[in-house]
Design brief:
- The chain is of the alpha+beta class.
- It is built from 18 helices and 19 strands.
- Strands 12, 13, 14, 15, 16, 17, 18 and 19 form an eight-stranded antiparallel beta sheet that branches.
Length: 498
Amino acid sequence: MKGPDARECSDDSMNPHFTTSLPTAATISHDVSEGNINGACKELVARLGFDCVISDSDVLRSRSSTPWSPAPPSQYPAKVVTPRTTADVSEIMKICARRRVPVTAFSGGTSFYGALSATRRGICIDFKLMDQILAIHEHDLDVVLQPAVDWQDLNARLEPLGMFFPPDPGAGARIGGMIAMSCSGTNAYRHGTMRDWVTSMTVVLADGSIVKTRQRPRKSSAGYDLSSLLVGSEGTLGLVTEAVIKITSLPQNQHVGLAAFLSTRAAVSTAISLITSGLPIDALELLDPYSLGAINHSGLSSRQWEEKPTLFLRFSGSSQAVQDQIQMAREAAATHGCKTFETSGNRQEIDVIWGARKQVGPSLVSMKQDPTDVFMSADAAVPISALADMIDWTHSIIKEAGFIGSTLGHVGDGESPRLSKLWTTLTALGNYHTAIICRKAEEVKAWSVIESIQRRAIQLEGTITGEHGIGLKLRHMLVEEVGDNSIKMMRAVTDLNS
């Protein structure tokens, strides 16, 4: 599976910091010879049908390389297989385990850091045919679904019922990948991350064994919490084939706000003020001038944006509650020198304003001046008290390196508010994204800037990745963040499944 496969990345093995340098690293032997792969495909065709085994070169490339996470041809899978059921996935894994064929997985293809790369070729399991919502339990507030369900499609189904699923990563993300990466999004400020919304899973292990982590109740003390262990494991422990996820009621009387400032520090100071006040707003996002300029350049928004550091806020609740939230936010922004503050409860305007925030990623990719230009990103997270200094420092090192880059982020990310009324003051985290577009020839230099940002986050007691995951590119940084003994423990867990 991806975990053992990722431990021996051939193209990146020259990096002396890679985790394979640890003395406990396992020796993995795969057989990706043409004869063995063809033999596996014959078995798979017999089990799944001819149409479920794909050799088309464009498909192979697209399942391992994307504009935001490119991979060289040497890291494309040899074949792509499309199962329909958990039993199909189990059969695929049994065949691949017996033949020692490495396996990667694909659902939405929106991940970063080489998470899709097939470093040992082998077979990619594409879950595109497992895209069904199997059951909606409206009164139990949960949904049973397959891994290739798009979170936006799910919310479109839930909206007429007055329900929604809060985690909102990038467009196109699917439930299986969202679980694997422990994603979040703009709703994390109030609703928490993906980890808070998964009740149980059906998972296929490397040997083809099928495991159901729990039943449907939200609360259970029966055995180890395998669901939490699997969320964020990036495919190293098993492949999710079915999940029970929680849903909640739709926010009522939604409004959005925009607060523009002359400096990023003033915007972040306002965010800190709002967070420490315990104000129960829905979302709190920061976009810098370069991000807004990218949106203007891309044409993906129907509005032209003033290119100043801007907080995007979202409110909901009773009419009085929303007005109180807006007034508190307006006062906090004014205290820190806000130049413009606007709000709207009009649905079309809400879609335009929040849609712009959700279009930042594609907008930044559109800034490439040549198809060979490289998009690089970091999603470090630090304690909120360190966020202003961290962003200022990030801007300075990007400028010193001669690049133009953006910083934006979920400046109020934290844990689920269900645990504590004062959750924002106790667990508030500044998860911000840095993006650099550079020429291919400058990729190494740009990546050194990204690593500097991540190391700075570690020094500030933060993390190298708040929601995008480790993938292949950040493995050596993971050692720096958690230490050798933590890595050994993680490997001990994965070895149980090898």
